[in-house]
Amino acid sequence: MNERLKAIRLSLNLSQEEFGSNIGIKSRAHISALESGARNITDRIISDVCREYGVREEWLRSGTGDMFQSGQVPASALSEVAQEYNLDAVDVALITEYMKLDVRYRNALKNKIREIFLADEASDPISEAPSTPEELEKKYPPINPHEDHEDVG
Question: Does the global pTM surpass 0.85?
Fold first, then answer.
């Protein structure tokens, strides 16, 4: 189990200090002792690691199955993204719930979002505007003010 604890930390690219502080262990030496087998991994540590990093308890205890829960974003990774992109609680909840969706539902949601964005692009009046003065004059020829234009309003 000690090697698996270290594998989790390395797969998340965390230092021993970072890994420990996220689960309430302040000492790098304590994490080092857990990883080397000098200290036993308690049920509380197992629970904290699984909760904080989205690790499957069965994998941590026995090495069976996948390391991470499917669709689970480790809380520390999500909190880093939330800080970096100034996300609020609703944003975080949306991301969390999205990650829990089955792949079929994710794809359906992505397709719907694409439809919405493409519909917005199609109705954009600026995208239809001529981009050069020549194109503008071709589309809307100038009017000679000295000619009689009864149909011009």
Answer: no
